[in-house]
Structure formats: C-alpha cells, structure tokens
Write a structure and sequence with these properties.
Major capsid protein gp5 fold, five-stranded mixed β-sheet, 6 helices, flat
Length: 260
C-alpha cells in the first residue's frame, strides 16, 4: 500500500512519518466511538471496492440467508492537514520539532467523519423507535432502557447491548442518584448495557441509541484502514491526507432501537 501513498516523496524521512502516525493513532483511539462497539471486518486492502451484503429470512421455520446478494460500495473518509515549509526549516535549525497540532485537528475531524457514517447516517437512519421517558427523574432512565431491551428480546434480538448517547445526556445520568450515598443511575444502566455506554456528540440530547452489536446483526467492512498519505506541495507548503474506505452493513435493522 505504501507505494501508492507517495510517502517517500514527503520532505522528511521515517522519523517524521513516525511522529505523524503516532499522533494520528493516538487521536483516533481517543475520539472514535463507532469502532468501540461495532464489529469490524478487515482491513481487506485499498483495492477492494465492493463487498457482498445479504440479510436474513425464514424458510419453513428455518433461519436462512436471503438468496439475493447485494454488493455495497465502500465509501471514502478523508481529512487533510498542511505542513508549512517554514515549520520544517525551524525544525531543522532548532531543537523544536514540527508542531503536530494540525495533525491532531485533522485526525479529530477524520474520527468524527467516520462516526457520522457509522452512527448518524448509518444506525440512526434505520433505527426503530421507542419511548425515552423523562431522564430528569431517578429510576426512569433505568426503566426505559430495561423496557427497550425487553422489547428487543421479544423481537428475537438478544444482548449484550450497547447504549449511545450525547455527552449532555450522559452527564445527566451521572448526576442522578437514589439518595445521598445510594446507587447512581449510571451504575444501574451500565449493568444493563454490558456491551458499553458510549458518548457521541452527534446524538441529540433527547435521544438514546440501543444496539445489539453482534456480528450477525451488523458490522462494518474496512478496505483501506486509516492511513496518512502525502498529497504533494502547495507552493512551498506540503499537504497530507488521512484516508480510509469502509461500509456499514446492517443485516438486522431490528437490532437498532432509538429511544426518543
């Protein structure tokens, strides 16, 4: 893959690339949400452009893969950053290295773009709906999640389950407790959502996403995993791109429920 990324043409060697790659990986691990609970297939390579997709059906009481197979195209996620020639000159002439701030910002935007494809335009787009209730009152969040999980089990979708909510909604959960020194609401909810409780800034504050993240329910396929390429120069400055290809496959939409 590296021969297609033009990394050898960049105005620095392995040490510079190591610093960039380390920063990108550090930020992605910190910011990405979808990858923490959605099963991943791959990476399969940049040359993979489509992947098979088939849902499930029932034939004479037996579960089976649908006979018709679709092919889903992988989509690109990208984010650019620029390294100025003067930065490189300062790094060469002093003990100060190239500032990695622009790399971190681009990696953050890249992580948000991936989550937008997986969660906002993916899971939220197919989710069935259930009642959220009033999360300002003690025990109501726990009861709403318990009822939603019971409904999922009734429809044939078992756990473990994951919850995704906005940072504001999560903070509200943390603030609820059953009397001074008693159990916190967040602790009770986390005991239900054993696949994890996640904060995603793209969620509305009055919505919570419940997912059964088993590979037979949904996954996402990665062709080229997140990697940084050299894009060339703009005058004396240099452009780089963080890039990947992926596609979300929701095989059982009933495994995604939106409480609102």
């Amino acid at each position: 893959m590296n021969k297609y990324l033009m990394r050898d043409a960049a105005p620095f060697g392995d040490e510079g690339w190591a610093r960039i790659d380390e920063m990108v990986v550090r930020v992605l691990k910190k910011v990405m949400v979808g990858r923490r609970f959605i099963p991943m297939v791959g990476p399969l390579g940049w040359g993979i452009e489509v992947v098979p997709f088939a849902g499930f059906t029932s034939e004479n009481g037996a579960a089976a893969v649908k006979e018709t197979t679709e092919y889903k195209p992988l989509e690109s996620v990208t984010s650019n950053f620029l390294v100025r020639a003067k930065q490189l000159a300062v790094a060469d002439a002093t003990r100060f290295g190239v500032d990695m701030g622009a790399v971190a910002i681009a990696a953050t935007e890249f992580a948000k773009a991936e989550d937008k494809k997986l969660i906002k335009k993916g899971l939220l787009a197919v989710a069935q709906e259930a009642k959220l209730g009033d999360w300002d009152n003690v025990n109501e969040p726990f009861q709403a999640v318990a009822d939603a999980m019971a409904a999922m089990r009734t429809s044939g979708v078992d756990g473990p389950y994951a919850l995704v909510m906005s940072p504001a909604q999560y903070a509200k959960l943390v603030g609820l407790s059953h009397g001074q020194g008693m159990r916190r609401e967040i602790d009770m909810v986390e005991k239900l959502a054993t696949a994890g409780v996640f904060q995603y800034a793209g969620m509305a504050d009055d919505q919570v996403l419940l997912v059964s993240p088993q590979a037979w329910n949904l996954d996402f396929v990665v062709g080229q995993d997140a990697v940084t390429a050299y894009f060339g120069n703009e005058g004396l400055d240099h452009v780089f791109q963080i890039m990947e290809t992926l596609v979300l496959r929701i095989k059982r939409p009933e495994a995604v429920l939106l409480l609102k």
